[in-house]
Amino acid sequence: MHKIALNFEDGVTRFIDATAEETVADAAYRQGINIPLDCRDGACGTCKCFAEAGRYDLGQEYIEDALSEEEAAQGYVLTCQMRAESDCVVRVPASSQLCKTEQASYQASISAVRQLSDSTIALSIKGEALSRLAFLPGQYVNLGVPGSEQTRAYSFSSLQKDGEVSFLIRNVPGGLMSSFLTGLAKAGDSMTLAGPLGSFYLREIRRPLLLLAGGTGLAPFTAMLEKIAEEGSEHPLHLIYGVTNDFDLVELDRLQAFAARIANFSFSACVANPESQHPLKGYVTQHIEPRHLNEGDVDVYLCGPPPMVEAVSQYIREQGITPANFYYEKFAAAAA
Fold first, then answer.
1. Domain named 2Fe-2S ferredoxin-type: which ranges (predicted)?
2. Which of 101, 126, 167, 286 could disulfide-link to 282, CB 3.0 to 4.6 Å?
């Protein structure tokens, strides 16, 4: 049995199980998800999707008009013919609603709240329902703010283990979630989450990676690094973590532990404030070296506030380099 992540164009991700004998389309229908489908014979192309990761067999029972050799070589698949040979990630060019599914919702309770610094809160939640939660490292969920009908989006900072997941949350003065976590939250308090969501997640590692994190944009990378530590990688990985002030630096011990576990992983942390006592000052772009960009043979992952995303994009353009892939996630803190 293999696990298939279906990523819909509205950002919703749903996971299904597929046997080696059944097609991905049949497995999805068996589990109540209606991937667009018409002929089921590999003749119409209606079920064409894109396989971002995993091994699979397409067989020979489809025609060129439905899926060309060039498309198959690029990673496009017909889900009515595709049979998984490993866990896979499949991008579906349709909304989750069209496929008659929706975000999954879970109920859990707070297991720990820690103030890592004046600007950062670590939140862990746990519950039996979360043992069924699957997500791709880098994705996020909408967390309900207790005592209100509002939600806030946060990236997982860890993988799910024994029904527990964690988040890094920026402490925003006057922020609805921040006010709850710093003033009211205690272990055992109930919380709801819906997801997973987002197209920012770790793809199959086929070349060197450059990971760029701004502030609590570090969260998705610690989840990714947990995955990489479990599976290993033959390619070099470098993370540059940038913050505004010295007190914004968190989780450095955790990054050091990853560096010890992952042989080809390295990281640096920098502080933008010129009055900083940290040895590495300046912005993330000031610490990207030519070797990190590897003449374009690199996948760049970036998570940070919009100005950082724009600055990095401009910097890479100015170097005259086009990365093989450039994945990014922008976030902005929400106040009350």
1. 2-96
2. 286
Q: Does residue 203 belong to any structural domain of this protein?
A: no
Tell me if 202 is assigned to some domain. no
Using CB atoms within 10 Å of the CB of residue 149, give its burial: 0 to 12 exposed, 13 to 18 middle, 19+ buried.
Answer: exposed
Which CATH number does the domain housing residue 88 bear? 3.10.20.30
- In-domain check, residue 244: yes
* Domain end among 151, 170, 197: 197
Q: Which residues contact 288 (CB under 8 A, 6 or more apart)?
A: 210, 212, 240, 315
Total domain count for the chain? Answer: 3
pLDDT tens profile 17-37: 999 999 999 999 999 999 888
Please name the amino acid found at residue 260.
A
Q: What is the pTM of this model?
A: 0.84
Kind plus residue range of the DSSP H or E element containing 312: helix 306-318
The three-point CA angle 252-254-255 to 5° equals 65
| C-alpha–C-alpha distance, residues 98 and 8, integer Å | 10
- Burial of 108 from C-beta contacts in 10 A (0-12 / 13-18 / 19+): buried
